[in-house]
Amino acid sequence: MTEREAVFRYCRITSMVLAGSVLIAALLVLSGWWWQVDQFVRPASGMPATHPLTAISVCLVATALLLRSTSVKSSQLTSVDDFTGGVSTSLACFCVMISATNFIGWLTGWYTCPDEWLFPDISTAAGPAVCRMSAATSFMLGLLAVSVLSHALRSSSGSKIGKYGAQTVIALAVLMLLGHLMGVRALYGYFTSVYTALLVGGLGVSLWLLNEGHYWVSAMRGNRLLAVNFRYLLPIVCIAPVVAVMMSRVISWVHASLGEQAGLLGAWGLGIAMMLCFGRYIRETRRLHDVILAQQLSMQELRDESQISNERARAIFDVAVDAIVTINCQGEIELINPAAEKLFGYAPEEVRGRNIKMLMPDPYRSNHDSYLQAYLTTGERKVIGIGREAMAQRKDGSTFPIELSVSEIMLPDRVGFVGMVRDISIRKQAEEEMQYANETLTKSNSELEHFAYIASHDLQEPLRKISAYCSLLKDEKGNMLDEEGLDYLDVAMRGSERLSQLVKDLLTFSRITTRGQALEAVDSNTSVQEAVANLEMSIEESGAEIIVDRLPGVMTDASQLTQLFQNLIGNALKYRGDESPVIHISGKKVGEQCEFSVCDNGIGIDKQFHDKIFQIFQRLHNRREYSGTGIGLALCKRIVERSGGIIWVDSEPGRGSTFHFTMKATVEEGDHHEPHQFNREPRDLALA
């Protein structure tokens, strides 16, 4: 809630409380007439009584004010609900009709007393002189009702009528109260009672608060000298006339009672009053001095903070690595920092007052003024508040790429702009070099793939011939060779077959990145099932048991993920110990990644070879013990790295191996899933 809204709310609530109090008091007056309680209709016997029709009219105006103030939706009094506004208007119109009828009766001498229907003993109870509402009371109540109605006009003229009407009623009520206090009948007339003046005055203050009280309340808030003086002097101004009248009454009574001794008592009283006034003056002077001193200290603190802020901003301005340029709304340069001097080659006095276009090459130079004018006219942002890349021009005429960001600053008397300029020549050069390197790498990969394909094709053809002729030689001329010759022939055939397999594996390895599919969401469970299906014969021959947990989905190449699982499961089947292989495949989400594990109970791997096994053509066993080319785990590593993950192994000789790898996750998975099992019944596992 803003301060303005808080002031409006305070005035509205105060107005409601005051109008409600007046309504209750008017109802008490009516109850006094109904039950003949004289103290409810006049302060003391012999004084004018409040007419019941006056109390009824006060009830109407107070209710109208309450309805209008309780339904206010904003700071404007005229913004009210249609229903409550209509009821309020109707009550005010009824009051205007009563007041006008009574006032015309005073002017013409014709009068009917409708309140006698409700209070038949009114003349007897209050005296014949009070059988009608006074003309002054009729005027004030009618003016109040018209002031309430004027707000329905929803115009400045209606607001003025309400404001001046409330002020007039308050002034008349104060005069009547002073007349009663001082005994001056001309100020209140014969028929206007004290209660009437209080009730009508209360309604006037309520209407005034609802209409323009927020101006006065705002002036009284805060620690400004005007506000402090206003808060202390207003009660004095309001109470002083009442005190003066009471002192006059006391002095008159003293003169009448004491005669000659009254002068001595008056002198003593005057002296005491002067001492009290002088003490009050000294106290208020000290208080005002303290207030002024506090404001001076506050102003000094603000000046110190402003100076510190300026010094801090100046230090940042001077030591900033990026160039900073400030311009006015005409595009003229006001300040440049040392970094800008160094970047553009100009001294501050060379650019001050000149258009910022001097630091720009075409086409930026020709478009700048139109951009600036369009922003100042329409507020359309093309540069302001939007970082972008552009070109700048040095003093020697050379151009260079920059990153530019411009912000608007609202000064007390004008609008300015601050530009941050960063030289991105090195970055642009690096980007160009990187682009060239990427293009070169793409070209090299394409050439390498073509070379690998040609090499594999050209190598496979003679290898197939060697293998075919060796086989033909063995079949047709084998009886002419001795045992040693047949061994040589077998070695040649196995060598050609192994070389053929190496060429195929090398081609597959080179195509992981060049021929792979785009990364997409892949169901890991499907990939494992395909890998197990491809190894079905090996699984049956080894009597292996494979347990697969429910696996999360990942972002990868589906065929390569199948190849990855197939290689890891195949290694577990190949490098098995004396026991039947037991392989457990699991996976879990770790943040945005998924971590998979392939655990077996095989022969294990010594720790010193944990990194070596992922290198191409690296083998820990000879071909007589375990067949293979030594490319399988290198292929696994390349597949995982292409998908943005890593692969590693935990293993000890004789205790099995667990291969771990990570890939980017795709879908949320549940907390618990039942595992899948292949080929054998599940049993308890103790896997390393």
UniProtKB/TrEMBL annotation:
GO biological process: regulation of DNA-templated transcription
Enzyme class at the top of the EC tree: transferase
Listed Pfam families: HATPase_c, HisKA, PAS
Entry-linked PROSITE patterns: HIS_KIN (PS50109), PAC (PS50113), PAS (PS50112)
A GO MF label: ATP binding
Keyword annotations: ATP-binding, Kinase, Membrane, Nucleotide-binding, Phosphoprotein, Transferase, Transmembrane, Transmembrane helix
Keyword Kinase tagged: yes
Region (Disordered): 669-688
Membrane-spanning segments: 12-35, 47-67, 87-112, 132-152, 164-182, 188-211, 232-256, 262-282
InterPro entries hit by this protein: HATPase_C_sf (IPR036890), HATPase_dom (IPR003594), His_kinase_dom (IPR005467), HisK_dim/P_dom (IPR003661), HisK_dim/P_sf (IPR036097), PAS (IPR000014), PAS-assoc_C (IPR000700), PAS-like_dom_sf (IPR035965)
Catalyzed chemical reaction(s): ATP + protein L-histidine = ADP + protein N-phospho-L-histidine
Role played: Putative oxygen sensor; modulates the activity of FixJ, a transcriptional activator of nitrogen fixation fixK gene. FixL probably acts as a kinase that phosphorylates FixJ.
Name recorded for this polypeptide: Sensor protein FixL
